[in-house]
Amino acid sequence: MRGFCCEKETRVEYDVTSVELEEPNISAPPQAVRIVEVLEETDHSFELNADLLERILLDPKVADKKVAVIGVAGPCRKGKSFLLNFFLRYLTWESQADKVMGEIVLENSQWMSPNSPLSGFSWRGGSERDTNGILIWSEPFLMKDKNGEEIAVLLMDTQGAFDSQSTVKDCATIFALSTMISSVQIYNLSQNIQEDDLQHLQLFTEYGRLALEDSAAKPFQSLLFLVRDWSFPYEAEFGFQGGQRVLDRRLKVSEKQHAELQQLRQHIRSCFEDIRCFLMPHPGLTVATNPNFDGKLVDSRTEFQQQLGVLISRLLDSHVLVHKEINGQKMTCRELLEYFKVYMRIFKGQDLPEPKSMLMATAEANNLAAVASARAVYQREMEKVCGGDTRYMSTNELLEQHDRCNSVAIQEFRNARKMGGVEFSLQFLDRLESDLQESYENYLKVNNRKYLADAESLGPLGGAIQMGEALGGNSNVTTRKRRQ
Ligand SMILES: Nc1nc2c(ncn2[C@@H]2O[C@H](COP(=O)(O)OP(=O)(O)OP(=O)(O)O)[C@@H](O)[C@H]2O)c(=O)[nH]1
Ligand SMILES: [Mg+2]
Hints:
This protein is an alpha/beta fold. The chain has helices at residues 6-11, 50-57, 80-101, 168-181, 195-211, 240-251, 259-271, 285-289, 302-315, 333-348, 358-386, 395-415, 421-474; strands at residues 32-39, 45-48, 66-73, 134-137, 141-144, 150-158, 184-190, 220-228, 272-279, 325-326, 329-330. It is a multi-pass membrane protein.
């Protein structure tokens, strides 16, 4: 693994800025650029800044090089952009080292530069979300992979999930896109891996999987659970090893578990080729709470600095760097661009179902269940009086029976305990009414067929009498308009 010497630290200026420009000109310094924007002011649609992405990925320096994409995603306000800036630092140092120092082995820790304020991807303290959409660093870094081939490394930052301005669809789309584009997706979590974290991962990856063509292969590549502020090193030590133990426990499937829990775990395992976990210590109160903290590592706990060094130098180690692959093919930057455009088109289109919050999904499910049992009540009651085995009855009589059974069924629906509130329920009531009307029309047809069959069995005279009755009494053998 390559290291860096102190000389470098004084000579090399970080060529980074925290400004996110939409349209950098050719000579602008490298910077974080927003390639996917969520139009929150209007309809929450997604816009790809294709020109910008083309300029980055079709740059002749990288266009036909294989690519690795490191993406960070997860709940908002948990230090994602902050972390990514250290990746940026590492890569900046390494690319400078290549230029200036050639193959000289340098001290590893110098890229951490304890007294430099942290810049690059926009980050900040406070409770309000910061990152919007998806950003990448405008200059891919060139590294050599284990075979000595040059590979372009892209860093990708994403909007945090579950902030107060994003819909479930926004969160699912951002997370899914990031999972589909990354070769290593970092799932950044705070304190622990909890069941709800796994449920969200399931929801988001399932959404991504829907957007992909069916294929036998696992759809996504490497997933790293990154647990920040891990406070139980006496149970599992910081780093990859302790992380693996926690992960094994969380993803363990046992027969004693409820089927739902087993399924969730199987789903996650089936989505990724490789799943790891890293436990990070707490960085100290200055990092977590001081509004004037500007990102200097010297203000963080030594333990945190050490583990940051371990994590980043391991993930970006050229011997283990994960190439971006799609269907088993290693992607070049040029190819990745095309995939990006296709994925965006899918997410912008109308084909994908709307992902829902857990409450909405549950409320919808139990409203639908209430519709189904009310419909069953209607059928049961109607079958008793005008089912296939019963005799023909006049249309008025049938209508009366329908009105009676309809009321019983509607009452059944109203009495059922349902989640989601009254307003939400109304659309299901509407649906029930239209289902019942449809059923009534079927009963009416069956009844009319009985009438014809009876008429035939009575012969020409009886038939004429019955026809006369029907025409005189109730010739209106038609359907009634649905009442509002
Ligand atoms: N407790 C804790 N705080 C951290 C850690 N790393 C960074 N922070 C702080 O977390 C705050 C938010 O950092 P950001 O990088 O902007 O967080 P983010 O996840 O990108 O936030 P959004 O873009 O809004 O989703 C900053 O005050 C950081 O100093 C960590 O490991 N633990
Ligand atoms: Mg951020």
